[in-house]
C-alpha cells in the first residue's frame, strides 16, 4: 500500500498509520484503496471531453422541429467547451477563438450536487454542480456530461476527501449571530 499523504510504501497489508508520516490510514474513503492510489503528484483522469450537443429531450425535439438547424447550433456551441476532470482538479476550457481556462482544485470544493432532469436521464447525460472556496469561480456547472454521472459524482466526492486529507485541509462551519 502507498500512503496518499506522503507517498511512502507501506510494508503491511492494512496499516493503521503510515510508518513515514504517521497519519492515520484506517478510515480512508473508497477511492483511496490500494488499487486506486497513485504516486504523489500523479492524477487519474475521470472524464475528458465536450458536453453533449443534444443533451436533453427538449433539445432533441427542437432539432427535429427545425430539421436539424437547432442541432447544428447546439453542436457549434459545444465546440467551445472542453472538460477535464481528474483526481485532483476540474479544468474547464471555453472559447472557440479566444480561450479561457478555469481550474478548481478538488480540495477547495465545499459541496457537490448532481442534476439530472427527466430529459437528461432519457438522453444519458447530466450536470454536476460544484461549490468551491474560490474567488473567481464560487460555483462551477459541468453540463451535458455524456458519462455515468452518478459514478463520476461519487468518485469526485471521494477524491475531494482524499485531497483534503493529503493537504491537511479542514473545513469549519461558523455560525454568525
The H/E string reads EHHEEEEHEEH
Separation of the first and last Cα atoms: 46 Å
Low-confidence stretches: 30-36
Which value, in Å, is the CA radius of gyration? Answer: 19 Å
State the CATH class of the largest domain: Mainly Beta
Number of helices: 4
Helical proportion, percent range:
25-40%
Strand content range: 15-25%
Coarse morphology: elongated
**CATH fold description of the largest domain:** PH-domain like
Question: Would you report the number of β strands?
Answer: 7
Notes on the structure:
- The strands form two sheets. This protein has a four-stranded antiparallel sheet.
- It has two domains: 42 residues, no CATH class; 125 residues, PH-domain like.
- It has 177 residues and is an alpha+beta fold.
- It is 25% helix and 25% strand.
- It has four helices and seven strands, in the order βααββββαββα.
- α1 crosses α2.
- The longest helix is centred in the C-terminal third of the chain and has 19 residues.
Features of the shown structure:
25% helix, 3-stranded antiparallel sheet, PH-domain like, single chain, 2 domains, 4-stranded antiparallel sheet, alpha+beta, 177 residues, 25% strand
Element layout with pairings:
Blueprint: E1 45-49, H1 57-65, H2 69-79, E2 81-86, E3 89-94, E4 100-105, E5 109-115, H3 118-123, E6 126-132, E7 139-145, H4 149-167
Antiparallel strand pairs: 1-2, 2-3, 3-4, 5-6, 6-7
Helix pairs in contact: 1-2
Quick structural gist:
This protein is an alpha+beta fold. It is 25% helix and 25% strand.
Amino acid at each position: 500500500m502507498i500512503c496518499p499523504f506522503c507517498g511512502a510504501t507501506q510494508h503491511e497489508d492494512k496499516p493503521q498509520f503510515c510508518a513515514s508520516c504517521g497519519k492515520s490510514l484506517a478510515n480512508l474513503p473508497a477511492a483511496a484503496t490500494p488499487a486506486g492510489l497513485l504516486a504523489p503528484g500523479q492524477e487519474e483522469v475521470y472524464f475528458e471531453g465536450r458536453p453533449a450537443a443534444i443533451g436533453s429531450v427538449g433539445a432533441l425535439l427542437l432539432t427535429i422541429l427545425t430539421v436539424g438547424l437547432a442541432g447544428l447550433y447546439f453542436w457549434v456551441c459545444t465546440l467551445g467547451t472542453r472538460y477535464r476532470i481528474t483526481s485532483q482538479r476540474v479544468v474547464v476550457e471555453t472559447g472557440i477563438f479566444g480561450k479561457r481556462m478555469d481550474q478548481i482544485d478538488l480540495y477547495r470544493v465545499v459541496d457537490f450536487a448532481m442534476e439530472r432532469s427527466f430529459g437528461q436521464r432519457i438522453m444519458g447525460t447530466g450536470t454536476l454542480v460544484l461549490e468551491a472556496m474560490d474567488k473567481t469561480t464560487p460555483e462551477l456547472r459541468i453540463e451535458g456530461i455524456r458519462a455515468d454521472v452518478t459514478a463520476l459524482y461519487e468518485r469526485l466526492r471521494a477524491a475531494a476527501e482524499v485531497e483534503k486529507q493529503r493537504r491537511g485541509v479542514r473545513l469549519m462551519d461558523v455560525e454568525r449571530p
